[in-house]
Description:
Blueprint: H1 15-20, H2 32-43, E1 54-59, H3 65-76, E2 80-84, H4 91-95, E3 96-101, H5 107-116, H6 122-133, H7 137-153, E4 160-165, H8 167-174, E5 177-181, H9 190-193, H10 196-199, E6 204-207, E7 210-213, E8 219-224, H11 236-240, E9 244-248, H12 253-264, H13 269-288, H14 297-308, H15 313-325, H16 329-342, H17 344-352, H18 357-362, H19 370-375, H20 385-404, H21 406-412, H22 428-439, H23 456-477, E10 488-491, H24 497-528, E11 533-537, E12 542-543, E13 556-559, E14 568-575, H25 585-602, E15 607-614, E16 622-628, H26 637-642, H27 652-664, E17 670-677, H28 689-704, E18 708-714, H29 719-726, E19 731-733, H30 740-749
Parallel strand pairs: 1-8, 1-9, 2-5, 5-8, 10-16, 14-15, 14-17, 17-18, 18-19
Antiparallel strand pairs: 3-4, 6-7, 11-13, 12-13, 15-16
Amino acid sequence: MTMPYAVTNKRVFSRLEKQMIWQKPTSHQTSEIELRIASEIKNNWDDTEMKIMNVLLEGDAGSGKTQLAKALSYDLQLPYTKVTCFADMDKSDVFGALLPVVATDDKTDGELLEAIYQTDSLDAVLKLIAQHYSIDLAAAKMRLAALVSRVDANEQEVVHYKFYPSEIVRAVEKGYLLEIQEPTVIRDASVLVALNSALEPNGMLNLPTGIIKRHLDCVIVITTNRNYQGNRPLNESLRDRMQHAERMDLPELAVMVERAVAKTGVTNLPLLTKMAEIIRLLDETAKTNAIKGVAGMRSYFYWVNTFKQGQDVFKSLYPKVIYKLTTEPNEITLLEQALDDSRLLVSLRQVLVPDASDALKEIRGRKISAQEADMRNITEEAPSEAVLQSYEVKDATDATDAKNNEAELEESSNKTTEKPSPEQPQTKGEREAHDGASETGKENTEGISKEQNVDIETYEKAEKELRKELNKKARSAMKGTIHEKEGLIIQRPKFTKEDVAKAQDLTQEVMPVVTRLTKKITDILENDQSEVYGKGKYSGTRFDASRVAYGDYRTFDKKNPPHEEPSLALALRIDESGSMLKDERIKNARLAALAVASFAEKVNIPLMIYGDTADLSSREKTSIYSYKEFSDDYLYLGAKLVTMKPRQNNRDGVSLRLLSQKLAEENATTKLLINISDGQPKALPDYTGTKAKEDIQAVMTEFERQGIIYLAAAIGDDKEAIKTIYGSERFLDISDLETFPEDLIQLISRYL
């Protein structure tokens, strides 16, 4: 059999060493990481300068670290051995120990010493004692210490000592693949530092019996969990000596399913996929809520195996998964709430029992008390049974349809399966109208389906009331600024049916880019969102000393749960001055805004869009066009953006201050304000030059202290002037307006 990654073809092993080479079981699924590491080691094996002999595998429990280390033994054809570290491990456990060789009158000690003499390592001695006395390894270590004490107390005997090397020394000397498990649990950080010299390519270990050199075939794989209770950071010097490192997370859903099929023999792929999704959700929820347990591959396999045995998977979920995470009632409630919110158990029931209208009632969720409803700000009762059942069937089928028709989705971008954002309709009537829009095959962003064709007269009446409120707040925000006595009007753009149709065409123009980037970003967010820390909290898991100076007591960082606080809130300010007419700048800015709006809706980014101009009339010194507030849904947003056009002058500081104030109030980890402009500010009577520059910089200085990030996208001739105003660290030079929509979305995605 050809072994493409074998590095020991010319080496002769003993019978015992051949048995130590791991053999892959039929259930083993070769992963991409395994092939990558084996290939890296093989390709550099004969390069004395760049040889890879030390590998770090860091990740969650159950992510396959030990399985991967064993698989490398097979791939490289090296004998496999391991050492599991423990809290009180000391240097004698790393190197070995001197043990006495004496005669004794004690028959039991004599038998034991006779057996000890036949072993060749300290680990083997401890295992032998444990087996001899039927005790664990910790007790065996104490028994060995007692034996040594008795021997030392016998002054009449001539004492001889023999050095018994550790398993680490044996592997280094004989050229094995050595797995060192969980070194981060060792209390004494200096213990593994003693291995530093052995980790070098021509490393050596200084033992009582002399110096041994590291065998040229020795490969050391360190496997450790990440951020678990009792763990300590891996020593920097040790980490630096790792020539290859891998982050080991739960594998992708498809890989989890493949391994479950091989491990358990269950072939119901929809069932396995849904169970894998539940495992991932529970694991992510546990991390974000500081629950110490882990839902990993082991839990997944044993849970799937209960289905194979005919058990109820909803009941076996607790002993196989949830109780392994925690048995604390409050923490179990958090996990159950996450399952309820995700509706994954509903979908799982649909897979098991396709016609499950009665069963769905059983798992819909718990009925909460009036007090809890008030705490969670719930003001409405649940919809009727008939409506709920129609939603449940739709939830289960939509997810399947999305997977089966992914190619069609990429091509037409007509249907979305993402969960509605918090800003979308929440009442029964609004939900029915909103769901109807999805079924017509048109984008929700445009709101142009028959079900969503809200009477424009009614819509404009509501807009009028909102406009009054916005103007009141805007004028209040300008008090104490140089704009206080200038005229200011907030407009809510009006639109026609022709604008609605035009918005649909323009959205379809940018939708291929939006769909492609959305899919890419969504995949990243699924893995990374739970790792994000929200800053500026009144309480949390990490103390941020840099925030003490603010005096607002928000000096902690806290991980964002996957179903709660968004990682990004975004505000767009678009210059609608007359110069935007040149070179189709306003057209490209409009397309970019449409693309960002579609992208934000798909990935649930809170979004606000303002356009502005100045000096349209003596009464309207500054006119702000509120295309979208954070509180708005996406109904008719495309039609509003179509009305964007070049107008008159620009008084940038007004719109920046209004956007900054509202952005600062958003509950988000990252608050990003992007200014799209083609020139420096200029408005009557004297808003230009140094006065305008100082005003804009004062706004940024004030709100950067509140966590807002400013970026200025320059799309015109006055790029150097814009760079001077906003600073080089905030400046973006948009050289190609044709790719501006795509470039802007990619820029935003960096902050997710």
